[in-house]
Amino acid sequence: MKNPNLYAHFHAGFSPFLQRTAIETDTGQSYSFADIDGISARMANWLESLGLKTGDRVMVQVEKSVPALLFYLACLRCGMVYVPLNTAYQAAELAYFIENAEPAVFVGDPAREADLAPLMTRLGVRQFTTLAADGTGSLMDVALAQAPTHPVREVQANDLAAILYTSGTTGRSKGAQLTHSNLSSNAQTLHSYWDWQDGDVLVHALPIFHVHGLFVAVHCALLNASKMLWMGKFNPTQVLDWLPQATVFMGVPTLYVRLLQESGLTPQACEHMRLFVSGSAPLLTETFAEWQQRTGHTILERYGMSETAMLTSNPCRAQDGDRVGGTVGKPLPGVQVRCMDDQEVPCPVGEIGAIQVQGPNVFPGYWRMPEANAKEFTADGWFRTGDVGRFDAQGYLTIVGRSKDLIITGGYNVYPAEVESFINELDGVGESAVIGCPHHDFGEGVVAVVVARPGAQLDANQLIQSLKKQIAGFKVPKHLFVVDELPRNVMGKVQKNVLRQTYEKVFESR
Ligand code: AMP
Predict the structure, then answer these.
(1) Are 238 and 26 in contact (CB under 8 A)?
(2) What are the structural domain ranges in the chain?
(3) From atom 23 of ligand 1, which residue's Cα is the shortest distance away?
(4) β-strand 21-25 against 30-32: which pairing, if any?
(5) If residue 415 lies in a helix (H) or strand (E), which one and from where to where?
(6) pLDDT confidence of residue 169
(7) Residues with Cβ within 8 Å of residue 457, at least 6 apart in sequence
(8) CATH class of the region 6-14+30-181
(9) Residues 6+ apart with CB under 8 A from 60
(10) pLDDT, tens digit (0-9, with 9 covering 90-100), for 214-227
(11) CATH code for the structural domain at 406-509
(12) Which atom of ligand 1 is nearest to the CA of 166?
């Protein structure tokens, strides 16, 4: 493509089909590809009318809506850097992001205008505008006054398209810079590896401030000129209603668990479906197996992160191999993944090591954080993901956890995911999280937090006794707590930092 602007790739994909329906929403609205192109052009014209230039940041914290998606496309069109924020952040937390990214424009929720407007003035944001979930707010008013055509601006492949702030569970959140070529190469790889076909229809049920919903799902659908069935918030009944007209669904594991609770989830309901994709957090092998049994479909699990977009995937086409539960598949075409030991030497097959990656999808570094960048890339240019995993003899990768979640107890390494997999197999256990808590003698002591299956009664002591028969003593939790649910963020990830805080003093008081 002559112009490496990501929007130019989308436009090339959908321009032969401008009259097709691009998006149908759960509130009954419908947009054609011509609408997508026209409304994003109006928004781009408005951005340029403010005198902004390529590379200026545009920060957005709004509820999911089609206009919010079109505004992302508008930023791409004019070469501005889109910076979406999780809607959970409060006004008091926004100051950090604004001071760090220095956006020229901030789009916020009209319901929070009274809090946000003074903050914008204080921090010198040039333009503050609003957009609500139903499309009302000042953004659409100013945009609709603009012309519906706009030339897609020429960018360099390495110009920034977006900055995604990491969830920042340890220390300050970092802005992962993603270039036009990072995103377009990954979109094209997924489009081809997942075998997108004419007639594919995507159920879009994820938030759009995160790599999964914004990049993976939207980019594939736009490149393919596919219709998206668009829901503001995940609603399992609505998903089931849509499945007979859809072919692709993408979800985090908790969405699959919620769908399994629906009696309407049957092989007939999924007859029209081609592909179910899961990622962003580990999919329990139990959920993988139950889904197969209930629907006749095998979930495709993939692995990626904000800094790199997608890295590995289970195969889609039969000729590429089987989808193996409990693994995240093989490196995607063009992506290199290695597991390294403590001496920075590649681990033999089956051995656990730190996952490092390289490829056209891997970001150039964190925004304005030279020290983090020096630490998180190796001398030979590989990015240290912070995840720990192992390859099997067939080349499938299994994620064992985040390296910061690794527990070192009395000098021994304990991988939480391994202990969790044993706990999850015990009778009556729904799910579990294993953490390390400060211990006067061992440095850290292993602690498990467990949720029972509906209707089951769990006895912490009995569970510990059962584990003692199966795993080495140093891996057995010294304390096991039964709770109603695990704390999760909106992407379904268990918040181990929250658990570590809750149980921080457990070895002091006992
Ligand atoms: P984020 O940047 O919010 O997308 O978080 C990325 C992190 O999510 C990765 O570094 C992994 O720790 C985790 N992750 C993503 N996909 C998977 C997966 N399929 N299985 C296990 N962990 C995953």
Answers:
(1) yes
(2) 6-14+30-181, 406-509
(3) 281
(4) antiparallel
(5) none
(6) 52
(7) 428
(8) alpha beta
(9) 68, 71, 72, 82, 83, 84, 85, 106, 107, 209
(10) 999 999 999 999 99
(11) 3.30.300.30
(12) 2
